[in-house]
Amino acid sequence: MDNATRASVVPTATTAQKHGRHAIDRVMQAFIYLCAALVVGSVVLIFFFLTKESIPFFQQRSVGSLVNGRQWSPLEPYNTFGALPLIGGTLITAAVAILIAMPIGITCAVFMGELAPSRLKTWLKSTVEVLAGIPSVVIGFVGLTVVAPALQSWLKLNTGLTGFTGAVLLAFMALPTIISISEDALHAVPQDYRAASLALGATRLQTIWKAVVPAAARGIVAALMLGIGRAIGETMTVLMATGNAAQVPDKLFAPVADNSLFQSMRTLTATIAAEMGETPVNSLHFHALFALGVVLFAITFVVNTIADFVLSRGSKP
Amino acid sequence: MKSKRPAWFKAWETVQYALLGASMLAVILPIVLITYYLVKRGLPAISWEFLTAPPKEQMTAGGIMPPLIGTFYLILGTFLFALPLGLFGAVFITEYGRRSKFTRVLRLAIVNLAGVPSVVYGLFGLGFFVVMLGGGIDRTFYHAPQVWREDLVDPLTLTQRVEAAADPLAQFLKPSFDPTTFQLNKEYEVSYNKAVERLAAEAAAHPERPGKDPLEEKEVKVLRERLQDKLATHLNKVLQAGPIYSPERFPDAASIPDLQAQIQKNPQGPELAQLNRALLESSFSQEITTFRRLKFGTGSLIWASLTLALLILPVVITASEEALLSVPDSFRQASLALGCTKWQTIWRVVLPNALPGVITGMILGISRAAGETAPILLVGASFFLPTLPDSIHSPFMALPYHLYIMATQATNAPDRIPWGTALVLLGLVLGLNGVASLFRARARANRKW
Fold first, then answer.
1. Which residue of chain A has the CA closest to B154?
2. DSSP of A26-90
3. What is the pLDDT of residues B143-199, one digit of tens each?
4. How confident is the model at residue B262 (pLDDT cuts 50, 70, 90)?
5. Which residues partner with B396 through β-bridges?
6. What is the spatial distance between Cα B68 and Cα B52, in angstroms, rounded to a whole number?
7. Fewer CB within 10 Å, N or C, chain A?
8. How far is B127 from chain A (nearest CA, A)?
9. ipTM (interface pTM)
């Protein structure tokens, strides 16, 4: 039924009212389309502006000098923009964070999804939701005042503000993402799988590890990727807890006293947040920070795309 | 049937159960501990005075009223911008384009928005809203010069800013200017020399630096200029801060000699600070004029709200979409069959039934916005302001940024202030989350279908 015939079956509406109603209808439709277009447009704009503001930097310096340079000294008189220490800091804190969070996150998801009775599960879920809700600056503050001094005295370090401290906090912050998405993936595994495995005589744990978890593997991988994305994009926690010295973290397998992981580290996000406020607009430094934003955006985009890809494929049985 | 598994197998399974439980405990325990610790250390700080007084005595005393109000304005603005965009974006998905190609593009956009790091939103807000839109408005309507923002650097170390917070110019300039000779005085030279030393040390640590140690003539010159810049830019910040330092107090420099005479009689009197202000305001009159022309071209409430609104869009759209989809299609069909137009159906039937879910999503969104620090750092959150924001283009103080400052920069503030701030922030964010879940639970219970 088209609009005209639909309107004609309403006996009380006068022609003028009908016109008025349909005019409003068209205006609101246009408005709704506009809102949808604005949402899409904002993503395009974000990407466009990040690129646009970083171009002046790349006109003066090469991409190689940014990505491969070992020294970040943006102020006069050095003006050296080598982002290797920052990229290294970002990747290593995120990698260590995920190495810590992976076993804990998956086992927690298994505990919540497969073992906990439903009332305990509800309670655990809401507690994990609380963790997801804690602002990152509060986690950073707790890291700064509680975790850093504890790690310093425990590992006998010169300073508690190290890449490792940041990684521990990031792991903690990535956990809600990992736990809830992994748990969803476990939940999506058909009950038949469990029944079949148990019927064959497997114990509950054997069923979990050999039947349920492998069936949910894609969802769990996606959860880990999203966790990595979260860890890479996190700003305030690492800004407050890693010490922020821009040195290339290249000694990762040395003893604790000499290991880069237990020294001050600086990430891309922390650099942008710490330096942008003190940078003149349209200076080379300003554009360099946008270039860091592009690098950061690229890294998170790759990670999130992989997660999305794995997740969308994983939903098909 | 009794299983015939060996004893070690049963032991191993027990160990596994224990490990699974321990892992869960390793997550739950820190959450409980953090909350407990924040309450324990923060609660003693919280009093009526703490919530209603501004920071005092160079931020070592007083309360958190201005950041609390700033965060309130901020989430209000975020709400106003995110609601139409998020709600109607979701309406588009569920009511207009369920199977259209554009919906797929829209979903892709939402997924990408959700993955963008928050600090990148800050960069976008700065580049697009502040510099381009705001700068454009200033140039078009307020006659701001083209290069207006070059002067708005703030390279002063934050410790100095804390010292300067209570009575900014007087505090900062006392060690800088000798009021009798109009020269930079000894203490300024000392801090200048310290800066040179520090840079020399930094230079020695980087052998690949062009040039040799000690600092070359050119580098010293650059350093000197930088320090003078700091002074100038600090002045800009201070002048932005409020009406106390307006040039109206010193319409010309004629009163300066009188002040000088009084200062020579009584070096401890208030005239010293007055003179410093007069002196600087007359030497930087051009910068002051420039600065006062800026309205939208600096970080402010409106730009920060817009930035945060974009940041929470994924949350708002996803929640709204879910709420709209939960309204049964039979409701829509019934409404259309009675002769209502599509918009009447949406407005009178679909939206009222979806409203609780939409509001839940909005509350979750603004709770996230209330806790975000990195984006507002770049688009208008201020370290200290003597007055509350009075327009949409005012800079503002915000609770999470205040916590960051109190935790990292204001080292001589008593511990109770950052702990109290952290507890208030956590209470605000978790409180909003709690309201959202209560709302959702009630809405589900009251559902009519």
1. A278
2. HHHHHHHHHHHHHHHHHHHHHHHHHHHHHHHHHHHS-HHHHHH---EE-STTT-EE--HHHHHHH
3. 655 433 333 333 233 223 323 333 333 344 444 444 343 344 444 444 445 555 555
4. low
5. B381
6. 9
7. C
8. 7
9. 0.88
